[in-house]
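Subject: for your reference before the review

Hello V.,

The reviewers asked for a structural picture of the protein, and I figured it would be easier to keep everything in one thread rather than splitting it across files. Below is the amino acid sequence we used in the manuscript, unchanged from the supplementary table.
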Amino acid sequence: MKNKFPPISQVKDIYWVAHFLFLSAIYIIIFLNNKIQVKDTISVINYNCSFILLFLTYLIINYLFIKAINEKVIQSDKSLYQCLYSLFLVLFALSFFYFYNYDIYYVIYVIPIVLIALTCGTKLGVFSACIIAVNVLWLGKNLNNQDIALAICLIVLAWLVGQISHILFQHALQLAKERKYLADLIETFSEGIIISNSQREIILANNQVEQIFEVPKSQIVGKGESLLWANSSIPYHQWSPNFLNMEVEIGPKNYLISRYNIMSTDEPEKNNFVTVINDITELHQQREKLQRMATLSAVGELAAGAAHEIRNPLTTVKGFLQLLKEKWPDHSFAGLCDIANEELDRINSIVTVMLQVARPEFGEKQELNLNQIIYDVWELYTYSGVKKGIVYIKDLQEIPPIMGIDKQLKQVLLNLLQNAERACTKGDTISIKTYADDKYVYLDVNDTGRGIKPEHMDKILHPFFTTDPTGTGMGLAICNRIVTDHQGFIKVKSQLGLGTNFSLAFKRA
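And here is what came back from the structure prediction:
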């Protein structure tokens, strides 16, 4: 998986340095062979005017080189720039030798030939070598074996470097195609895919990883994989090399993680790892919702079956108590009858609440705006809390309508505000907020009260669970049933001593 070829930016740097060293070598040769005295300032300044020409040449050569290797340039223009690059480099080298006629510096021809063969391939490399070879033979006053050997060596060198460059280029191109194919392939998966090397550094990741962790890929690739899982419920250092379907929590989200070890054929000690990430937050919520619905269904069946059988004896007992109270008007006995009646009323209210869980108040669903519902009941539902010194805050954003039953949603709001009020004391704050995204409309009720104990968090939406001695434990169960019937869900966050947040989500109409 590791790319053994340097990126194009490093290739550019190498060539720029090579061009600079080539031109600098020529400049130094000219300087030394003109025997310029360093103390002769005027001579040095006049001679250094050639530096301007060399610098312009350096800029032109690099410009042509960039165009010659640019993948975004169409092939015909790219070939043109390669020819111009080769021609300009050859003419510059030839002009130097024609002007100064220093035969002993023929060896410097190697540099432009190698640069051309590497950049432009075998054909232009050999062609440039032939031009320079002809120049070597032409300049020789007497044709000798050294000039012929130099010419042949330059041509062979150009062919050899060009062939090696072509092989490396094809290899690099094939590797780039395979990497692109792999990158395109993993982008088709709905799961998050992370490929990391033996040092646990991420070398490839798909767009799903960006969405899951909300971090750009540019900040992921090349970094340690452990950084992504810093807040995981199962620490990254405890992960085994291979595992399937490990559930992990990060903040409010749930993930199903599988990890595979890929053996490296060329370097067995260096393995790669593929991590597959499924965001199962919604699935987890659905599972919890189904469990709650099963519980509510059981309670509903119990309530529906028992309500009639319980209420009939209650009516009979209340009648006998009233009769006994009339026949024995003793004050203490009458007080006991009143207490018994109150307890019977309490039993009756519990049965009524159970029926509400089983069958919430019916009505026809219609388009509703949560903001309007809050406006309608705000003063009424916050009156008792304001009298206790609780501060209420309302933050209602513009939201789309939902499909719902007005009375049921008001009952949910009443239960949440009453629970928040019971958890708060004077000076605490209760805030309500509405907002929306492309799927849901949200209603958040937040308080700064005493909070909920961690061991109670999984039970608060279950029927009959309550920490209030006077409560029935059915209020939040009713809220959950109503929200579920409205194709929504409830999330609860709480910190003991700091407060609680109930977040309700309803599907947009």
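For the response letter, the relevant points are probably these. The radius of gyration is 42 Å. The chain is about 55% helix and 15% strand.

Happy to draft the paragraph if you're swamped.

O.
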